[in-house]
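Expect sequence, tokenised fold; for instance:
***
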Amino acid sequence: MRNLRPYQGQSFDFHNAILESKRNTDQDPTYKDRVRELAEVIEQKFEEYDENFEENTLDNLECHGYQNIEKSDLLKLYRFKSRLIQELKLEVTTSEFNRRLNTCQNCTISEINSMDHFVSKEEFPEYTVHPKNIFPSCTTCNSYKNKIWRIDGRIQFLNLYLDELPEQQYLFVNIGVELEENVITTEFYIDNRNNIDEAKYNLIRNHYERLHLCERFERNNDVVISPLENIIRTFSQTLEIEEVKELIEETSLRNKIYYGQNYWKSILEIALVNNEDFLSLVSQEQSV
């Protein structure tokens, strides 16, 4: 996973633009007027969010307490497929290399097909369309997170707009190979053997556990294993196996620079090419 760049414009201007893009209906001709009446308080709450965002103290936020029609009106502002939300998604997922990241960075597994409200919009409807509270996500991560974002005042998930990811490795994998059965198993786990700051590591651990990331990596391991087997078979026809290993490791390390030092695919690739049983299995298949 890697950090994304947060929205660079004025937050309350984005709220107003969303509101102006909405339409009153014959069934509800006063909708926009009702939301406009909340503008003074909403602007104040946006300023509070931005101040806490800058200090990375979103856990200090206190909700205004909107209920009933006011809450419903604010929640209606958000629609994933709306033009402004899609433009926001494009802005924050475009990398410094002008490449678009369309993989959910909460998990680095699935395609972005929703927006996660980091601070729950059910608890804080005033932040339903705060552009720094909306993070591109997959529906799987979104459903696991649900309305939970803090417990006993402590944030439970990484905020990839804010939380600087450590350079040290904390994600590891055990490889199991059954040569006779042609079976490869993986067991991902996180560990603080490299002495990451304890508070940061605990936040990472909560994020991985609550989003079931290690189990999801294991379920998706064949998107790495089968292509890697094919790469080894292809290049080993003209190169020594040690040269093939070096090429794969170099590519994996380059991918870690771009996708994050704990990118699960790179960690799995490096572990596999350094596993003698895996290499023996690939060699057996190649000779058949």
Q: What stands out?
A: The beta strands are 114-117, 134-137, 150-151, 154-155, 171-178, 183-190. The first helix runs from residue 11 to 21. The chain has a mean pLDDT of 93.
